[in-house]
């Protein structure tokens, strides 16, 4: 019997339908109302409340095909994927369940009939073995006397470490709660008897394949050694669709069943691999299934929680793509194939396939550059490590500098049996965190100054007040007074200066009294108080003096206009791009605003224009901006935007711009939206994977921006000798002319290349039918020489090609070997001779390699060595 996986899935459901079971659809991979699970990892997850007795099932007999993911926690198969024949991140679990209906006898009879009946799976009975819990005599007797399984095919499994109920054949949901013995059914790939339990356990992975587990939930675990009977008994079974498909399709590996066979063949086309059993092909095939299904269930790549698991799976697949030579983006193209091969299982997401492709493509493009750079550096470092341990410093450097994930570094190291020094890695990580917490502006003050005091901020409504000097610091030390030309920090009992926080920069201004004048250059928080950082321009200010605290009002106005504009931007992004937008950082200054947010898609120019239009409409409507102190719970009920993972007091300051924007904020704001004047986005880009940044300007700065653009357009039109209105048409004409000239130049280059190729061939010599072509060029383009090598490789069947380009005191050598010769002589070996002689930089593949060096004086000697080496290699073959 060789059924398709789709037919096997449907046969399972049809069988249990004939037994009175209700067929329930698979639940989402995202567990509903269950914070203990990251992803659904078993068929029983959606029925957990029934087993716990917290809810009653509408139906007493149910069958499902549940999609599952095992990438963490108790069940983590990620590291085994591709390296074993049976492990997957994503798989489908066939299951039948009974809630206080049938029990052991019927459950076993159903399983045996489905597996062995000619009408259904028709597996030979002698190929099936059974395991039972050692104390479960009832189950043993059912198999032996009713099902008539030979006793030599029934194995009793005991407890581990002499600990009662600690057995592979005693299932439990957790340390406490529903549990019970289980019986497992194995398919035997071998022949002959098993002498004892030890032999069975030792041969389990090689000879036997577990295909079905039937759990008898009949007890409630009170403690490690104490269980009591449950009032209602249940059945929970699980059979991996991929595993049973491998048996019925008569293949030893899950990766050879029809589903994976189709995916692997498609991936092979991208890579030109002929070995379909390559580990990387299996990993990519597994990971495209899991990625597609995770995204279909509403998860997007991110750096947190489920999104991080998805991102890790995608990046691992991309790395294996690079490993087998796939240079271009390819992963997203496989989503369509998943939808096709998965049959009815994929019905729920077939209308989402274009969105899935879009998300995968964006993630792939964003990570490709990081992957290429990281792999190059890591592979170079791995060649020079000692004791098979990679320094934690290198692992952190890759992550911190290039965004190369440490788990991907670990994955690569594991393949080479290399460990990462995680103690060292954590040390560098902690040092970096400490650095990031320190301020970059006047940072030494914050590191070294501790002031145990408070300062009342009165700058929401006032620009100028009188205040008492409480503390003075000069050169980080407390002093009684600060004199002319000294730099320091002054602390007051109250202030109008807003201290840098929440993305808003600190105020500037002056503290003064009579002839004493202190210029405040920045304002920062020090615990519960506020430090005025600056320089004493005249006079003396002493401890306990009363001074005027006056901010730079014009600068403050610009800051608060930009802050209010940031709130409008945040609200508009959530309305135009969706509630997936989440603030990841912001900067509000007097000249511009910057806003970082999570969003995996691309943002188009029409979307930018729409965002600007919405915000400017709100500005033109001159809406009143109100602030209120309200209860935190009230703010949540009003859907106020906040970083609710932050610590907030029970009463919070909330900024309202009608009901369009409601946001928790301690910053200063304009009184009306009209104060902002006008809003203009000047840049939008990605700053990290899944993180976008928008920078914008308002008011006078926006007008300056437009004036600057007008000047640029005027200058361009002058250079092009055309009117500004006609710039586009003029540039288009120039582009056409440039393409035409480029085409003519390419033809001339091709003609020159042909002449060069013919010249090189005429100057060649032969050894045993192999042409040896060595030629020097001067001041040529590397790309052109590479093209000449590749054309020669196509033109000549057996050839060793060496082209040298000399520029001043530097030379580059490109070596090419035709494909019929790479088993006896390689381009990389030729280049290695140059590297050894000159310590130049280079490398490549067996058919094409290159090196560059400044050691021009050795060129002739090197060429003699290379020709002698080539002659010797060819004559000996």
UniProtKB/TrEMBL annotation:
The keyword Nucleotidyltransferase does not apply. Transmembrane segments: none annotated. Its cofactor is Zn(2+). Keywords: Aminoacyl-tRNA synthetase, ATP-binding, Cytoplasm, Ligase, Metal-binding, Nucleotide-binding, Protein biosynthesis, RNA-binding, tRNA-binding, Zinc. GO terms for biological process: alanyl-tRNA aminoacylation; negative regulation of DNA-templated transcription. Zn(2+) binds at residues 563, 567, 665, 669. Residues 3-708 form the Alanyl-transfer RNA synthetases family profile domain. It is an enzyme of class 6 (ligase). Its EC number is 6.1.1.7. Binds 1 zinc ion per subunit. It catalyses: tRNA(Ala) + L-alanine + ATP = L-alanyl-tRNA(Ala) + AMP + diphosphate. It is found in: Cytoplasm. GO terms for cellular component: cytosol. One of its GO terms (molecular function) is tRNA binding. The keyword Cytoplasm applies. Consists of three domains; the N-terminal catalytic domain, the editing domain and the C-terminal C-Ala domain. The editing domain removes incorrectly charged amino acids, while the C-Ala domain, along with tRNA(Ala), serves as a bridge to cooperatively bring together the editing and aminoacylation centers thus stimulating deacylation of misacylated tRNAs. Catalyzes the attachment of alanine to tRNA(Ala) in a two-step reaction: alanine is first activated by ATP to form Ala-AMP and then transferred to the acceptor end of tRNA(Ala). Also edits incorrectly charged Ser-tRNA(Ala) and Gly-tRNA(Ala) via its editing domain. Homotetramer. This is Alanine--tRNA ligase. It comes from Buchnera aphidicola (Pentalonia nigronervosa).
């Amino acid at each position: 019997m060789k059924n398709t996986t789709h037919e096997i899935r449907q046969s399972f459901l049809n069988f249990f339908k004939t037994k009175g079971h209700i067929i329930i659809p698979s639940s989402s991979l995202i567990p509903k109302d269950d914070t203990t699970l990251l992803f659904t990892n078993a068929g029983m997850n959606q029925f957990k409340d029934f087993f716990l007795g917290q809810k009653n099932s509408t139906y007493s007999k149910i069958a499902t095909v549940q999609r599952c993911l095992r990438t963490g926690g108790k069940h983590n198969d990620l590291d085994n994927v591709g390296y074993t024949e049976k492990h997957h991140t994503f798989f489908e679990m066939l299951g039948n369940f009974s809630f206080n209906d049938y029990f052991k006898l019927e459950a076993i009879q159903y399983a045996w009939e489905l597996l062995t009946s000619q009408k259904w799976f028709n597996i030979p009975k002698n190929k099936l073995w059974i395991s039972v819990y050692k104390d479960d005599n009832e189950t043993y007797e059912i198999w032996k006397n009713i099902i008539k399984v030979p006793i030599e095919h029934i194995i009793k499994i005991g407890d581990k470490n002499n600990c009662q109920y600690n057995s592979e054949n005693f299932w439990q949901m957790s340390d406490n709660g529903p549990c019970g013995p289980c019986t497992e059914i194995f398919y035997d790939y071998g022949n002959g008897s098993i002498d004892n339990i030890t032999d069975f356990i030792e041969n389990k992975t090689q000879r036997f394949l577990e295909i079905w587990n039937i759990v008898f939930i009949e007890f409630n675990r009170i403690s490690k050694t104490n269980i009591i009977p449950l009032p209602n008994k249940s059945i929970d079974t699980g059979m991996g669709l991929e595993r049973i498909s491998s048996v019925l399709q008569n293949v030893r590996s899950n990766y050879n069943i029809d589903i994976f066979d189709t995916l692997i063949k498609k991936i092979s086309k991208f890579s030109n691999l002929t070995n379909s059993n390559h580990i990387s092909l299996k990993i990519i095939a597994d990971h495209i299934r899991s990625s597609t299904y995770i995204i279909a269930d509403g998860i997007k790549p991110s750096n947190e929680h489920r999104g991080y698991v998805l991102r890790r799976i995608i990046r691992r697949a991309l790395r294996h793509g690079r490993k087998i030579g796939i240079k271009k983006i390819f992963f997203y193209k496989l989503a369509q194939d998943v939808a096709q091969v998965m049959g009815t299982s994929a019905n729920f997401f077939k209308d989402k396939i274009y969105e899935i492709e879009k998300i995968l493509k964006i993630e792939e493009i964003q990570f490709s550059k990081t992957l290429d750079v990281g792999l190059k550096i890591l592979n170079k470092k791995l060649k020079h490590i000692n004791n098979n341990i990679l320094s934690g410093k290198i692992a952190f450097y890759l992550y911190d500098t290039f965004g190369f994930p440490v788990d991907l570094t670990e994955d690569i190291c594991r393949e080479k049996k290399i460990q990462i020094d995680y103690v060292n890695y954590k040390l560098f990580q902690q040092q970096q965190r400490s650095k990031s917490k320190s301020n970059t502006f006047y940072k030494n003050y914050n590191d070294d100054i501790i002031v145990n005091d408070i300062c009342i901020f009165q700058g929401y409504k006032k620009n100028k007040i009188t205040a008492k000097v409480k503390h003075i610091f000069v050169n980080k030390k407390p002093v009684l007074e600060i004199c002319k030309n000294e730099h320091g920090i002054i602390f007051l009992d109250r202030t109008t200066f807003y201290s840098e926080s929440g993305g808003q920069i600190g105020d500037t201004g002056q503290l003064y009294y009579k002839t004493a004048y202190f210029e405040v250059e920045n304002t920062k928080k020090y615990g519960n108080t506020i430090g005025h950082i600056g320089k004493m321009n005249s006079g003396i200010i002493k401890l306990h003096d009363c001074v005027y605290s006056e901010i730079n009002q014009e600068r403050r106005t610009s800051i608060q206009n930009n802050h209010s504009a940031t709130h409008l931007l945040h609200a508009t992004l959530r309305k135009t791009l969706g509630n997936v937008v989440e603030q990841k950082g912001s900067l509000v200054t007097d000249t511009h605003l910057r806003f970082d947010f999570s969003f995996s898609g691309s943002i188009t120019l029409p979307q930018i224009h729409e965002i600007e239009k919405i915000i400017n409409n709100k500005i033109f409507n001159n809406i009143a901006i109100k602030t209120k102190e309200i209860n935190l719970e009230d703010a949540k009920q009003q859907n106020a935007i906040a970083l609710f993972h932050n610590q907030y007091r029970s009463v919070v300051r909330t900024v309202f711009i009608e009901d369009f924007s409601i946001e928790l904020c301690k910053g200063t704001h304009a009184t009306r939206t009209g104060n902002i004047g006008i809003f203009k986005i000047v840049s939008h880009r990605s700053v990290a994977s899944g993180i976008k940044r928008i920078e914008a300007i308002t008011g006078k700065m926006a007008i300056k921006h437009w004036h600057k653009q007008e000047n640029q357009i005027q200058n361009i039109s002058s250079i092009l000798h055309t009117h500004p209105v006609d710039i586009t048409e003029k540039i288009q004409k120039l582009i056409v002319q440039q393409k035409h000239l480029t085409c003519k130049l390419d033809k001339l280059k091709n003609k020159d290349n042909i002449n060069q190729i013919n010249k090189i061939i005429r100057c060649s010599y032969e050894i045993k039918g192999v042409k040896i072509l060595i030629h020097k060029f001067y001041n040529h383009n590397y790309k052109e020489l590479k093209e000449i090598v590749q054309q020669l490789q196509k033109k000549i069947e057996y050839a060793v090609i060496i082209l040298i380009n000399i520029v001043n005191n530097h030379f580059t050598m490109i070596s090419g070997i035709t494909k019929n010769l790479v088993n006896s002589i390689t381009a990389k070996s030729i280049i290695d001779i140059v590297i050894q002689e000159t310590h130049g930089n280079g490398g490549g593949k067996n058919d094409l390699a290159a090196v560059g060096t400044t050691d021009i004086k050795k060129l002739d000697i090197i060429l003699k060595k290379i020709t002698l080496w080539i002659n010797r290699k060819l004559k000996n073959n």
